[in-house]
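In the design runs reported in the main text, the only information available to the sequence generator was the tokenized backbone. The following block is the verbatim input for one such run; it is reproduced so that readers can re-run the procedure and compare outputs position by position.
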């Protein structure tokens, strides 16, 4: 369970870190990006976001989770569902961006639920 969480986190983060422009083009609407498209600051922010997600994945893979860890992580995932819906609804995220992130969030949440149940 924990290996799945860490692998998905690190994998999605690494893709964003190494291919920030491509991820941004797939994830953000043209209206959000504006006439300038992918700017250097946006690329940097995407790379920072990806490196943080990769670091989180590595941390998950190298740590020993307890029932409380799974519970806390799972509860911390809840706002991300609202984030995806809100920014998709505003037209900032593409369908691919919102659904792609939501799928990752569902994987993390299900893993947290299963891990919590297994260790409780």
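Verbatim output:
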């Amino acid at each position: 369970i924990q290996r799945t969480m860490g692998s998905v986190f690190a994998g999605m983060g690494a893709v964003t870190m190494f291919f920030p422009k491509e991820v941004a083009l797939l994830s953000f609407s043209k209206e959000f990006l504006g006439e300038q498209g992918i700017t250097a600051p946006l690329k940097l922010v995407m790379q920072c976001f990806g490196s943080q997600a990769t670091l989180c994945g590595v941390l998950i893979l190298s740590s020993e989770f307890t029932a409380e860890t799974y519970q806390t992580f799972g509860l911390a995932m809840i706002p991300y569902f609202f984030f995806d819906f809100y920014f998709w609804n505003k037209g900032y995220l593409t369908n691919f961006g919102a659904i792609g992130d939501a799928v990752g969030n569902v994987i993390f949440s299900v893993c947290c639920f299963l891990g919590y149940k297994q260790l409780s």
